Q: What sequence folds into this?
């Protein structure tokens, strides 16, 4: 409340969104936790990351297990004297269609081991790349194979095979994510153009510039006829040319 010569002025603060408050608080706690974790020794960091990720994985696995519980209960009881291959197939089916406790264990092992190895590799190598991701996935797949009992009688060989499979899949996904997270190469040639169009509220015409190959280097050379050729209407053409004329850098290069 403020009192002036004309009377009393009351300033009302708009109520904050409770969801936004919770999100901001959660983000603050997350940043604080990461800051604290970065100051810890390597063993402590690896143990904390493994434990927290395993707990998250167990929660997800338990939920998934409730969905597959009916499938696991319908599996027949294995008969005595089954050959090793048949028993291995039955164990694999049990591992993939187990109840909440089985799936919680499987997901806890996969996520915990993966996150723990990733944190160690990042601390040792100082970066996150496809090699570190594949090493973590190999350990995750191998431990999942050993804990779930999947595969044939040779557990060691099957653990290596599962680890290699997990590593190849993770490596492929990592590379795929890198490809889609990076902007197209052509975009670097339209950075100034995009900024200009956004400032003028004409961002919908960026595709016209690209279709006509009007890159940043052509901005000082733009004319009304060039913009007309790429099918930009008269009004936006005037705004673009006026912006170029008013911009000191573009005007100097134009002259």
A:
């Amino acid at each position: 409340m403020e009192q002036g010569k004309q009377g009393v002025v009351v300033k009302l603060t708009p109520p904050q969104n409770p969801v936004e408050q919770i999100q901001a608080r959660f983000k603050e706690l997350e940043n604080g936790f990461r800051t604290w974790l970065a100051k810890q020794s390597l063993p402590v960091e690896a143990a904390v990351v493994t434990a927290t990720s395993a707990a998250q994985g167990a929660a997800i696995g338990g939920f998934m297990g409730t969905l597959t519980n009916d499938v696991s209960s319908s599996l027949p009881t294995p008969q005595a004297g089954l050959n090793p291959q048949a028993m291995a197939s039955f164990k694999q089916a049990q591992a993939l269609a187990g109840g909440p406790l089985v799936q919680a264990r499987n997901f806890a092992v996969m996520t915990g081991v993966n996150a723990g190895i990733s944190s160690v590799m990042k601390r040792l190598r100082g970066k996150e790349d496809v090699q570190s991701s594949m090493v973590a996935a190999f350990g995750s797949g191998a431990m999942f194979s050993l804990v779930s009992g999947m595969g044939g009688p040779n557990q060691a060989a099957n653990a290596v095979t599962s680890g290699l499979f997990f590593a190849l899949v993770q490596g492929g996904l990592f590379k795929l994510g890198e490809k889609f997270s990076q902007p197209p190469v052509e975009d670097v040639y339209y950075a100034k153009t995009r900024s200009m169009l956004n400032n003028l509220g004409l961002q919908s015409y960026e595709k016209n510039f690209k279709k006509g190959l009007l890159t940043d280097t052509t901005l000082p050379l733009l004319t009304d006829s060039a913009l007309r050729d790429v099918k930009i209407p008269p009004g936006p053409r005037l705004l673009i040319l006026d912006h170029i004329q008013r911009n000191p850098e573009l005007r100097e290069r134009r002259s």
Remarks:
- The mean pLDDT is 82.
- The beta strands are 2-4, 7-9.
- The chain has eleven helices and two strands.
